[in-house]
## 1
Amino acid sequence: MSFLRFAARRVAEMAATLLAASFVVFGAMYLAPGSPAGFLLSGRSASPEAVAAIKAQYHLDDPFFVRYLSWLGDVVQGDFGRSITYRTDVSRLLADRLPITLLLVAMALVVVAVIGLLLGCIGAVRGGATDSTILVGTTFAVGTPSFVAAVLLQGLFAVKLGWFPSSGAGDGFGDMLWHLTLPALALALYLIGLLARVTRSAMLEALDSEHVTVARSRGVPERQVVYRHVLRNSLGTILTTGGLIISTLLVCTILVETAFSIGGIGQLLELATTTKDFPTVQAISLIIVALFMTVNLIVDLLLPLVDPRITLGSRSTSV
């Protein structure tokens, strides 16, 4: 299968999946107890005319499929509706908060990639006590959920030592990097352990392969053996795990943002869910689904480039 044909097929599959996801996202909120009208009234009694006006403003009395098709048509044009909680366009809320979340995820991803790959490589190549120490450390990391890491890091480095801010996202790029350091570490801790273990296992398997033995017997320097034959042959597994890591970061950022009061889309989603802010929940959920699928598409397209044994449309190596 040609690259362009495969890419076109995957994009078509993404569009179909996104359409199905949009229906589920839109319908799920209406299955939950409560209503946006009840939130807008804040428990106050209101005349039937006032309730009818609220329902008319948000089209709550329209048939379900009419509301869905109207919402989908607006979404295609970039209009996610108006937030019930904030009384403003959802698109504006996303434009204000999405960059913060993306910066947090990017910082955490860099930390995971650098430390996770380094620990995995060192553990696989050196072995012995070094490998055992790394295994113990990564076991602790994998067993620590993001929200627990957030509380521990916040209590030690922000409250007790005062080295980092305890909340907020900061003003300006430099200040934002400073404020997001602890949240990024909390978000990355579990995934560092995961990537380190995957990298170590993939490299140990490659070290036992026949072509590595042949390269060593020919006198190829150990550094070149590790780089050209071991690490390169492990990239397929590592890249596949990288897609899972990015998806996990997008989900776990909700907990970390809430713990540090960062004000990104994760914290916005948590608040919108509580207040039955239908348009905001639907928009954020759809964006997260779209990001998931985009990450998977990129991984599928990159895998054959980093590992020729993998063919387009397959994530398994041929034996």
## 2
Amino acid sequence: MTRADIEKRIVRYGELKPCKTAFIDAHTPGSDQKENFTIIGGGVSESPDQHVHIRDTPGFNIGAAGQPPKCRNSLHSHTTAEVFFVLKGRWRFFWGLHGTAGEFIAEEGDIFNIPTGIFRGFENVGTDYGMIMAILGGDDAGGGVTWAPHVIEEASAHGLVLGENGVLYDTKKGQELPHNVSPMPLLSAEQLKEFPEVPVENVVPRYVARYWDLMALAGKKPAKVIGTDALLKDKPGFEVDFLTRGSIADEMHSHDKHVVLMPMRGHWTLRLDGYETVLNPGDTALINPQEAHALAPSMTGEASLYRVTATDDPAGATWTAN
């Protein structure tokens, strides 16, 4: 394996290529400054303009969303996991058909395993450009996005029409739906009953982990964040661990499944097949099964990293009403 082969599986934060027309609300005031990033896998973008950094999928997708202050992502739902951790800034997550069922504020490093089957949105409530990193369940990221009806109606008023084929058409650019493609139908009142209005007390304790709690939990071993025996108990088709300076040894090891490394704080030295490089906050590295590697913080000071490992569990629903 050459240095170039390894670098193809590392996406640097500074080299991320955004798409500003990824979703149906790209022209909607308040949401028209969003930047969507597809890092590993095809993601759920509805635009052919979306750049994909690594097309291979390890059983899940990695993406990111960047937004200036007061910019929001409109209410939508997924059929598989959507996990976010805050890389930069301060974010408000909200859910329910009109975003009024519940909300909480996420700080840098916090992670949210959003329950499937509910409408959710998020907004940058910080003072600077913010970035959240995303893990989406399944190789095809659950087949796309289901939008709240009012989102589709408002987007149409601003020139964007979503076809039932999942492709966006911009009437401001003279685009029209193909003759054999109908507009994406709005969910009926009966269908909307399948999307629960979940109170905040049923979401935050079960699906949110705070950064400084994870720092305290990660002692001599990584903290288990998402998994069957983790802090946030779930089986979304992947597991998430939280690594710190004291919870990992600088020794060669391998995993049976694909692993993705996503630094949160500090600089991490990755050794792989005789090659050594440094991973920085916002970088993403894909490690293949049975690939021997070593990982350790490369400088003094605070160091933290999220590690995502594929599992054999199907990428199905994560929400349970109990």
## 3
Amino acid sequence: MAKPYQIIYYRGFGSPNAVWLTGRVLRQNELTSPADRASFWDNLSATVSRFLTKEVGGITVRIETFGQTFRTVTNEEGYFDITINPDIELPAGRAWFPIRYALEGVQQPDTGEAVIKDGQLMIAPAYSQFGVISDIDDTVLVTGATSAWQTLRLTFLENAFTRLPFAGVSAFYRALQSGAVTTLFNPIYFVSSSPWNLYDLLIDFFRIQGLPKGPLLLRDLGLNADLLSSQGHHTHKRTMIDKVLSVNPDLPFVLLGDSGQQDPEIYADVIRANPGRIKAVYIRDVSTDDRRDAAVKALIEATADHDVPMLLVADTVAAAEHAAAIGLIDPDTLPEIRADRQADKE
């Protein structure tokens, strides 16, 4: 039996004049939602299915949004990537907008139905005070990214219900999205070197843990040595951060990451290249290497010359207390963040 066509869309983002959209077209059965008591074999089978994909290249994807139509073509791995310029007046007080993807000249093999996928894209409202760019692995999600075996074990043998967040993260990120006034909408972008194949797992994880909805900017790669390449990690994350900054030229940003890999180095580069754009940087201390700790502290001292506070924090509450003190979040959210941390630890 021929497998159905599937459009996998990744949440787009941008500004009224430039919106970046990406996704993938595959031939595969839709992945089922995870179960909190799924077996070892169920988790392994689901993850293997994410990587054993049949890509559909050279196919036209029609994109309908803001009353306009755009077209692009998938590459040999089934990915499509397009920046559109809708040039529109957006309604006030709204951040998420509908979008529809359809394959032209293609029908589902068994039913003859059109291949359509409805989704959403995010545009930061004019009243946003700042944006947030956050790493995922070992910043939001316990990954053990400094250990190849730990990363692979958690990726293949766990699911969105059984993966663990860092304590207090959900409440802190909700506070950042609301800002100091708690009635605002500050956009949050999640950047990771994890492959796009894990997109649905991460979306489910964020939903289950109550993390704010935002675009996830992952990486095009397979199961090979590049998965753990530090050079590829640095290049990808810097490229995605630059893309977010470029489509939000008037918005300052808060950056969040961890000390385990290259987040401090990447963020220090971003600060130097974008004077006045970065309000604060929070680095979760996950390293047990004294040399690594010394290197991170040296970067922190260097960023102080640019009047940007970069903090190496032991936990979410320490970051939240500083954010409240400099006016990034409402101090009244601190009790909820402390309670969330305690609940997660228990």
## 4
Amino acid sequence: MTKSIFQETVEQFVLSKDQVQKIINGLTDELVEGLSTKDPKNITQQPSFITRLPTGHETGLYLAIDMGGTNLRTAAVHLLGDGQVGVTMQKHEITHELKTGTGQAMFDWIADCTAGLLKTVAIDMGDAELQMGVTFSFAIQQTAINRGKVLAMGKGFDLSDVMGHDLKDLLEGGFARKNLNVKVSAIINDTVGTLVSHAYVSPSTKIGVILATGTNAAYIERASEVSKYNGPTCDQMILNTEWDAMGKAEYLPQTKYDKEIDAVSLVPGFQEFEKMISGLYMGELVRLALVDLIERNAILEFLGGKVPESLSQRLAFKTLFMSTIESDHSSDHAGVDKVFKTSFGIEGLTPEDRARIFQLIHTIGKRSATMTAAACVALLQKANGSSVNLDDPNEITTIGIDGSVFEKYPHFSHSMMESLIEIMGQDRASRIRLELARDGGCIGAALVAMVSESGGAV
């Protein structure tokens, strides 16, 4: 029987076992390549200069900031020992104007946000120098535990006078202009922060993952494998994989919608893996598929093939709408009606329309979870025999995951675990734990700042 246009569209997002294995193999090859490449265009597998995980007994009060793709978080972090922390945190939205303005304006704003935090927690600085740990959710070339050159940003950022500059200098320049005596004593990536902070609470944590506006991961590698590392001798090293920047056409199962997202992005051909799975792009994949289906009269036929203006705008269909729709468990998918009426002014959906839209959204969400699981398997296999032992029936390996997609998207963690079982087998997968790691950036940065100040490495 001939498949309908709708069926053909949805099936593009369903991954076969062979496609999943190609993703694992392709990412593994890129992980290996990133360990040694001297190509400045290859930003993967960045050494963090952090050589061990915390014990859970660290104590002290430290400032931290966590700069992500959507928000800046400022925090005063009190490490209490025994895996316990006290955190005073403030969240600030990073506006489009800031993202596309000057570097000086951005770092002055960060200093202003830090000053606001100090006022809130009533820290009297006096002449004392405050130590700060920084989590930076973008690619940097780390040259020391508190220094790194900004390599690339993405996620909608297009700042002037930032690329190639040392992040410590950029931040401390902003603090100096605002008369704040704050020293940047540690710089880490958000995934490194997630790994370090969750290991403080859960010692079996060996991998940290971010699943939010963007995506990335960190893991522990044998130092002998990291030939690009130029630093003090050590046995192991936490690596910031920058897996968001991985992905090649020969193994990524890109649909025409994925290719369209890439083509109109700020940097085509960059972060192709991320563009298939992260929160910034999942909703846009749904929108592009919906527009195509409407134009081909395969859905919402009462529109006569004409796409409403409200659905024509790039990024108009947010990943949040996918969460809202998948959170509705009613048999008639009333959540679809709610989103389309409230956000797009579209009414009159038939039961078949609602069921099809739900199916499309569920399939795209599940593809993201499956691809994320495949990437985790690539990391587990690469670390096997060093920080991870997949063959020990008594060893539990925890993957700490931070970010709105993992935390808030319905069934995402369940879909990831289902995929892990399918890929690894029930026995091995049963020894893998997927755990939510909230606010990993700030706590991880504080932990690394503490150890850096005392002259050691985590």
